[in-house]
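Whiteboard transcription, Tuesday session. T.W. wrote the C-alpha cells on the left side:
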C-alpha cells in the first residue's frame, strides 16, 4: 500500500509574523526595481550580459536590502513618533537585529562584487559607502536626495563594470538618467509623512516628463536616421510602379525603447501630478511608491535603446510583480 502523502507543516503563526516583519523592514516589493540597474548598465557597456551580470545583480540586491535595514535602524527614534507601526518601533524586530542584517548584507554584496572582478568591487565599495553615508548622515541634509540618486547611478555603473572588457564610461548616460529620477523621487519622499509640498512633486513631474520625452525622441530619432558610418548611405532602388516602398526598419529595440520610455513618463507623471494638485500625505506616499516602481520601465527603456531586447523585456516583466506585491508590502 502506498503511504499517504503528508503535507509539510504550515509555519507557526509566530514564524509567519516574523517573516512578515522582515519583509516589511526590507521593503521586498521594491526589490523588483533593483535588477534593472545592473541590466541597463551591462547593456550600455557594450559588452552585453554574462555570468558576472548575475553577480552584479546579487550585489545590488544585497546592498539595497542593507540600505533598507540600516534606514530603519537609523530612523528608529523618529519612526517611534511618526510611524509606530513599523517593525522596529513596534518591537517586531529588534534594533540590534536590524543593524546586524545591514552589516551582513553589505558584506555579502561586497563578496559577490569581488567575484565579478576588481572594477566591480571598486564600484560596489563606493555604492556601499554612499548607502551607509546616506542612512547615517546625509538623509536629513540638503544633500540627501542627491546622495540617494548617486547610489542608483553607481548601481548602474556597477552593472557595467562587472562585464569583462566593458567600457564603463559608455554607461554614464544611463547612470545619469537613474540618478536624476531617483533624486526627484527622494525629494518627494521627504514630505511623505506630513504632506504639504507642491513644489517637490511638481519638480519630479517636470523631471520625469523631460526624461521620458528625451528617451522617446532619442529612440524615434534612431529609427529615422541612417547609421553614421562616415560614408553616404546607399540609395535603394526605386520600387516598381504601383508599389509603395516599405519603411526602412530602425535599429533593434527602438520601438520597444520608445514604448517603455512613454510608459515610464506616464507611470511616474500621473502620481506626481496628483500629489502636486493635492499634497496630502496619502497622495504624496502614492507618488513616492509610483516613482519607485516607475524605475522599471525606465531601466527597460535604457536597455532597449542599446539593442539589448532580452534585458529590456526581462526588466519590464518585473513591473506587474512589483505592483502586485506593493499592495501587500509598502515599498516605502
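and on the right, the sequence the group agreed on:
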Amino acid at each position: 500500500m502506498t503511504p499517504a502523502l503528508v503535507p509539510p507543516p504550515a509555519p507557526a503563526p509566530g514564524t509567519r509574523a516574523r517573516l512578515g516583519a522582515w519583509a516589511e523592514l526590507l521593503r521586498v516589493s521594491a526589490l523588483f526595481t533593483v535588477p534593472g540597474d545592473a541590466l541597463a548598465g551591462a547593456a550600455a557597456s557594450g559588452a552585453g550580459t554574462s555570468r558576472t551580470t548575475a553577480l552584479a545583480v546579487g550585489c545590488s540586491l544585497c546592498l539595497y536590502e542593507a540600505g533598507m535595514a540600516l534606514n530603519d535602524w537609523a530612523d528608529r527614534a523618529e519612526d517611534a513618533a511618526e510611524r509606530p507601526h513599523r517593525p522596529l518601533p513596534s518591537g517586531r524586530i529588534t534594533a540590534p537585529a536590524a543593524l546586524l542584517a545591514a552589516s551582513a548584507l553589505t558584506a555579502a554584496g561586497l563578496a559577490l562584487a569581488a567575484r565579478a572582478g576588481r572594477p566591480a568591487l571598486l564600484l560596489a565599495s563606493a555604492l556601499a559607502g554612499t548607502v551607509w553615508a546616506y542612512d547615517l548622515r546625509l538623509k536629513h541634509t540638503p544633500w540627501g536626495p542627491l546622495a540617494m540618486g548617486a547610489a542608483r547611478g553607481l548601481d548602474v555603473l556597477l552593472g557595467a563594470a562587472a562585464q569583462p572588457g566593458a567600457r564603463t564610461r559608455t554607461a554614464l548616460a544611463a547612470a545619469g538618467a537613474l540618478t536624476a529620477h531617483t533624486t526627484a523621487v527622494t525629494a518627494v519622499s521627504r514630505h511623505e509623512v506630513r504632506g504639504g509640498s507642491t513644489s517637490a512633486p511638481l519638480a519630479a513631474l517636470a523631471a520625469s516628463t523631460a526624461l521620458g520625452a528625451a528617451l522617446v525622441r532619442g529612440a524615434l530619432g534612431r529609427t529615422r536616421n541612417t547609421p553614421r558610418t562616415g560614408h553616404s548611405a546607399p540609395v535603394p532602388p526605386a520600387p516598381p510602379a504601383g508599389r509603395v516602398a516599405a519603411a526602412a526598419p530602425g535599429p533593434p529595440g527602438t520601438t520597444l525603447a520608445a514604448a517603455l520610455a512613454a510608459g515610464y513618463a506616464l507611470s511616474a507623471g500621473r502620481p506626481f501630478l496628483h500629489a502636486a494638485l493635492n499634497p496630502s500625505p496619502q497622495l504624496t506616499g502614492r507618488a513616492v511608491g509610483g516613482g519607485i516602481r516607475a524605475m522599471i520601465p525606465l531601466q527597460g527603456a535604457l536597455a532597449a535603446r542599446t539593442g539589448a531586447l532580452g534585458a529590456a523585456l526581462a526588466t519590464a516583466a518585473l513591473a506587474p510583480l512589483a505592483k502586485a506585491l506593493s499592495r501587500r508590502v509598502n515599498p516605502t
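Someone added at the bottom: The chain has a mean pLDDT of 88.
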